[in-house]
Design brief:
Keywords: Membrane, Transmembrane, Transmembrane helix. α13 (303-321) packs across α15 (360-387) and α14 packs across α15 (360-387). By secondary structure, the protein is mostly helical. 74% of the residues lie in helices and 0% in strands.
């Protein structure tokens, strides 16, 4: 479909491109979760109830779901440098406006604009890295740019609480200004200006169908996490999403220039990484939702102690980065995804053993080990996704991967909420009064999804992606 040229950035700037994109990803991921602990103070500033501000989170995530599918076409038409730089500028400007607003309506409007900038930053930034990185350096690059997706959801709530407590919620958004300005300058300096010479037409029908399907499913996921939402309303949006999604698939497979090219699924490693990988992402995305609730509601901790404990997951993520590449070279993708995937699921199940009387040291150990396992699995999945994708297909594969990955964030929260509802039902009470035993069941259900995620890995060849991992002495 896409004839995007494989134009690498200057060798001297390739490492800087990876760092730049990782920083942009961190800003985008952080803004999706950091305002959670600031909602009460923001509600007082706007004169509304805290629950009404959930639209500030929802509108941002919905905008990402709608506009990410168009990012590949925009990057091919106008060039990675122009689009990525503009995306950072839009995201940064909208962040400043978010901090200056004094009402719910203008705040929501600013969040939507911020989401548009974020939707362009994620897949276009990944595309910049993929074009600038050779296959033998791909694992290291992917390891760096996937770090924000693991870290931001974990440190977002405690960081937001710290800023809100000692300064003002407005600084949550103002801090993006210096980072954004630096990013704009570096992106314009180091990214290439390659465009797609084909100038393929924009698939408006596909964009509309994907947007409606993504919005309906994401909103249904948001409703699932709310105790005041009825199941009938949730089911209605899920049905709309499913029907529109089916229509979108039918259209994308038959149009000459689809907004999302599905041919990347013909690449075995990409298909496996997307199917099982999405289930894994859903399972680990439930953890930042369940852990703070368990610590605060189930164990009776305050927000500060809860936030400090969840940082143990963040520490595990960072510690694993040091040994990820040697592990992958020693054992290869298939073995790591199978063994570590099972271990990651077991580490989630281990959280079901935590109780209000468990010593803090054991809680920290369990969370740290879980952080190690999920970091290795996350990096392996993301690297395998692009291991065998030809350079001309990178734009389409990046857009498809980003679209599906964005959906899993909302689905992970929904999985956590559904697991809690099931646990409460099994214990014979409503979700308004959850107990530590409910969280134990919820974590076991989430771990079960993690186990199912590794089934597809058995279909991989033993040397799958060896030219990227270096397993068995092979390299690009």
């Amino acid at each position: 479909m896409s004839g995007s040229p494989s134009v690498a950035a200057r060798p001297s700037g390739s490492s800087l491109i990876v760092t730049l994109v990782a920083a942009a990803f961190f800003m985008e991921n952080l803004d999706g979760t950091i305002i959670a602990t600031a909602l009460p103070q923001m509600a007082r500033s706007f004169g509304v109830q805290p629950v009404e501000l959930s639209i500030g989170i929802t509108s941002y995530l919905l905008t990402l779901a709608v506009f990410i599918p168009a990012s590949g076409w925009v990057a091919d038409r106008f060039g990675v440098r122009a689009v990525f730089t503009t995306a950072i500028a839009v995201f940064t400007a909208a962040s400043v406006v978010c901090g200056m607003t004094d009402g719910l309506v203008p705040f929501t409007a600013a969040r939507i604009v911020q989401g548009i900038g974020g939707a362009m930053m994620v897949p276009v930034g990944r595309l910049a890295v993929l074009r600038a990185t050779s296959k033998d350096n791909l694992m290291r690059a992917i390891s760096i740019i996937t770090w924000p997706g693991l870290v931001a959801p974990v440190i977002g709530p405690p960081l937001g609480g710290l800023i809100t407590t000692h300064a003002s919620w407005r600084w949550i958004f103002y801090l993006n200004l210096p980072l954004g300005l630096i990013g704009i300058v570096l992106a314009w300096r180091f990214l290439d200006t390659a465009r797609d010479p084909e100038k393929r037409p924009f698939d408006g029908v596909g964009f509309a169908l994907c947007g409606i399907a993504g919005t309906a499913v994401m909103y249904a996921m948001e409703l699932t996490g709310r105790t005041d939402a009825g199941w009938l309303e949730t089911f209605a949006f899920l049905l709309v999403g499913a029907l529109t999604g089916a229509a979108a698939l039918f259209h994308l497979r038959r149009t000459a220039h689809p907004v999302i090219d599905l041919t990347s699924f013909r690449v075995k490693t990409f298909a496996v990484a997307m199917s099982g990988g999405l289930l894994f992402r859903i399972s680990i995305s439930a953890v930042p939702f369940l852990l703070p609730l368990m610590f605060q509601v189930g164990f009776g901790m305050d927000a500060f102690r809860s936030g400090l404990l969840t940082l143990a997951v963040f520490a595990g993520n960072l510690a694993m980065k040091v040994v990820t590449t040697p592990v992958m070279r020693r054992f290869g993708f298939r073995s790591v995804l199978l063994v570590n995937g099972a271990f990651a699921a077991l580490s989630l199940a281990a959280m079901s053993l935590l109780t209000p009387t468990t010593p803090y040291v054991w809680i920290v150990i369990v969370l740290f080990v879980s952080g190690l396992a999920r970091s290795l699995q996350f990096t392996a999945i993301n690297t395998l996704s692009f291991a065998d994708v030809p350079k001309p297909q990178m734009s389409d594969a990046s857009t498809l991967s980003s679209t599906l990955s964005q959906m899993t964030m909302g689905m992970g929260v929904a999985l956590g909420a559904i697991a809690l509802r099931v646990a409460a039902w099994l214990h014979g009470h409503g979700t308004q009064s959850v107990t530590p035993a409910d969280f134990s069941v919820a974590f076991l259900l989430v771990a079960a999804v993690g186990i199912v995620a590794i089934v597809d890995v058995f279909t991989l060849e033993r040397d799958a992606g060896a030219h990227v991992s270096g397993h068995g002495g092979r390299s690009a």
